[in-house]
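lol ok so funny story. i was supposed to be doing the assay writeup but got distracted and ended up predicting the structure for this chain instead. priorities right. anyway since i did it might as well share w the group, maybe its usefull for someone
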Amino acid sequence: MDSSVIERIIDKHHGEAGSLIQILLDIQNELRWLPGAALEMVAEKLQVPMSRIQHTVTFYKAFSLVPKGRHEINLCMGTACHVRGATRILEMIETVTGLQPGETDADMKFSLDTVNCLGCCAIGPVMEIDEQHLGKLVPDRTAALLKKYD
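and the output, tada:
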């Protein structure tokens, strides 16, 4: 981990403890996860107890304490998507990637998670890859979409 990246992000927010969540989000956007050494550095620089930082990163689903793949897949399993076949979409994603929800593949290509809602109920089933929403999915189209990613 390059500590200058963490210092730059903290400095951008003027080292303010009130910016903790945004600092953590910026670090995660840069590194694709929140390594322990980065959290310790944030605690020291912001003079915030490590327990507060741990509470924050474990409370919000947006944070990850494990490395994420280059492409993050979030599949909606909410009611509207579920009744339109989200389970079949999940099975296809698992087949193509070899992943179960909560996992990242060994070559750091994909991370897979399920979510309760992506806010796109009208076009369900929906998955999000790298913050791009893909809707009205069917298993074959899902497989084809996943194969387009490097």
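The beta strands are 71-76, 103-104, 110-115, 127-129, 132-134. The mean pLDDT is 95.
back to the writeup now i swear
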